[in-house]
Amino acid sequence: MIIVTGHLSVAADDRDRVVELSRDAVVAARASAGCLDFAVSADSVERDRVNITERWTDREALDRFRGSGPEGEVGDLIRSFTVDEFDLASDESAGDGIRELLESRVTAVKAKDLDALAAVLAEDVESFNVLPPHRIVGREAVLESARGWFDGYASDIGYDLHDLTVTAAGDVGFAGFLYHVTGTLDGGADVDMWVRATLGCRRQDGGWLITHDHESVPWDPETGLGVLTR
Predict the structure, then answer these.
(1) What is the pTM of this model?
(2) Which of 32, 66, 88, 203 could form a disulfide with 171 if both were Cys (CB 3.0 to 4.6 A apart)?
(3) What's the fold here for domain 91-226?
C-alpha cells in the first residue's frame, strides 16, 4: 500500500476555492482502480493550508492516476507544497530484514562476539536489561554490559529465540519474542532461564539496527520473585 500525505500552502482567501477546484480530482481518484482513499480538505487551524491524504493499493495504481488525473487552474493558486510518500508494500522485506538482524544477534551472543554484536546496534541504542542497571544508553555502554555478561560464563552461552513476531513499515519496525538462555557460570552454577523481549529497530543506510531493547520476566506476587521458567 502507498500512503501519500501532505499539504498545500495557498492564500487564505483562496483556500476554499482550491478545495472546490480539487473536487473533480477527488472524484476521479476515488473512481480509479487501486484507490483506497483520496481527500483534499481545508485545514482546521491554518487558513492558508489545504491538506491532502491518499491511499493506493500499489505504485502502479498511483502512477496510472498521476498520468491521467484531471488538470486545472488550481496549480496557479498554490504557493508551495509538501508531500511525502510511504511505501508499505515493502513490509514483508522489512520484516525479513529484521529477522536477519535477530539471527545476527543470536549468532553474536552464542559466540560471545562483541564486534558482531556492535554491528547490530544503533549508536544511540537504549537498553532495559533484565540485569542491572535499570537503563543503559549508547552502543559502547551496552557493549560494556554485554562484556560483563559474556565473561561471567565458563561455558558457551545457549541463546535461542521462540514465539517471534515482527511488525515493520517503511524504515521502522519492532520484534517481540521469548529467549531461552542456558549455560554454566564461572562459579559453577547452571543457568536455565526464559526472558521476554521487545526490540525497536530502525533501517539506516539500507541496513537494520536495534535502537531499543526492553527485556523482562514475569513477577510472582506471592513470592515477590521473578519467574524464570516457562
Answers:
(1) 0.62
(2) 203
(3) Nuclear Transport Factor 2; Chain: A, (3.10.450)
